[in-house]
Amino acid sequence: MDFTDSPWTPENSCSASSEPAETYTTPYVRRPAPVPGNENVTRCARRPAVLLSSRILFYPKPPRPVQPTSSPNAYKILVVDDDPDIVELLEYNLRKEGYEVASAPDGRKALEVAPQFNPDIILLDVMMPHLDGIAACRQLREIPKFKETYIIFLTARAEEFSEVAAFDAGADDFIAKPIKPRALMSRLAAYVRRDKDPQVQVESIEINGLKIDRTGFAVYQDGRKISLPKKEFELLAFLAASPHKVFGRDELLQNIWGNDVFVLARTVDVHVRKVREKVGDHHIQTIKGVGYKFNTDN
Among the three residues 146, 171, 196, which one is the final residue of a domain in this structure? Predict the structure, then answer.
């Protein structure tokens, strides 16, 4: 049989069927038929997997910014420090806890910001340019609206004379750096609870021409009004509420400053001296080796 005279076609193949022959292609080279009109479209190659190092996979993400609270009842805190890193750390943690926060880089700027912001608590550094924290605290206490504002020093100056100078200027608390955010937040929460917890107490006390108005946080000596910072007022009112009873320093610290605040026993002595300078020496009597008591004798 001469195959050259009869070229192979599907019709004269060995199959007798009239159906068209089936076409086979190799599976791994099969390509989909192009869609008419899209012959020029090119397909992107599949991106190979890339194994990232653990250093990249577990790199900590920066904290998301916390927006200040819009609650009208939020406590306002003014942060005064010349270190921008400390200010940023405090602002983030305070806003996270729901406080409304403002800041100032030195004591002079704090005196400008405070009357506009009206803070409930002021966190104050000692060593700052232009006006240091001790001088700023004294000037803040001279402003009537800040007589009852909590002023807390946050400073690297941990010497006793710095602490005494801070309390002499009118500070309520003294905390040495480095700052521990969680401990600081707990301490601030204790101040807030103390303001919000109602206490059953006598509204006013009158002894030897001295009138103590608890509701108005005012003291009158023979009709003359005497301005006292918050802690000095609380100390005087606490002693006057139990005349002739002797209180030790530790007991006064617990009742006036609370268990959540760590201050030295020397703090009581400083506050007693400041109260005596303003209302007279004869109202608070020292019992050597024991403590203090309120004296009702003329």
Answer: 196
